[in-house]
């Protein structure tokens, strides 16, 4: 979509130095998307809704399991906590 936007001259010169005149639209579109993502994230974080529900995440069912997951992560062992833990998980579980 084409649109008309008024920008300060010094800002346009800076953008042109960075990406060139033919890169303005893409630069401004990327900047607008980044700003919108930030605003959406801020709005979500301010809503107080949990990012992940620990009850639905096998690796984070208890504080101890979460701690073990972090310990494994720090040792270079990683898995998606929303999926069932891999076989090596028992090496890091405090109750194993």
List keywords for this structure.
single chain; 96 residues; mainly alpha; 2 domains; 49% helix; 0% strand
The domain count comes to 2
- Alpha plus pi helix count: 3
Radius of gyration: 23 Å
C-alpha geometry? elongated
What is the residue-mean pLDDT, rounded to a whole number? 82
What is the number of E strands?
0
Largest sheet report: none
Helix content: 40-55%
- Structural class label: mainly alpha
Proportion in β-strands: under 5%
- Helix-strand string: HHH
- Termini separation comes to 59 Å
Residue windows where pLDDT falls under 50 for at least 5 positions:
none
What does this protein look like?
By secondary structure, this protein is mainly alpha-helical. It is 49% helix and 0% strand. The chain folds into 2 domains: 9-47; 54-91, no CATH class. The mean pLDDT is 82.
Spell out the blueprint of helices and strands:
Blueprint: H1 9-19, H2 24-47, H3 63-74
Give the gist of this structure:
The chain contains 3 helices and no strands. With 96 residues, it is mainly alpha-helical.
């Amino acid at each position: 979509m084409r649109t008309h936007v008024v920008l300060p001259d010094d800002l346009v010169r800076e953008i042109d130095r960075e990406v060139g005149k033919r890169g303005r639209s893409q630069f401004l579109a990327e900047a607008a998307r980044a700003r919108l993502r930030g605003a959406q994230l801020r709005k979500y974080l301010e809503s107080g809704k949990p990012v992940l529900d620990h009850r639905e995440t096998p690796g984070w069912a208890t504080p101890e399991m979460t701690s073990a997951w972090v310990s494994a992560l720090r040792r270079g062992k990683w898995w998606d906590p929303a999926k069932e833990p891999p076989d090596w998980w028992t090496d890091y579980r405090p109750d194993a």
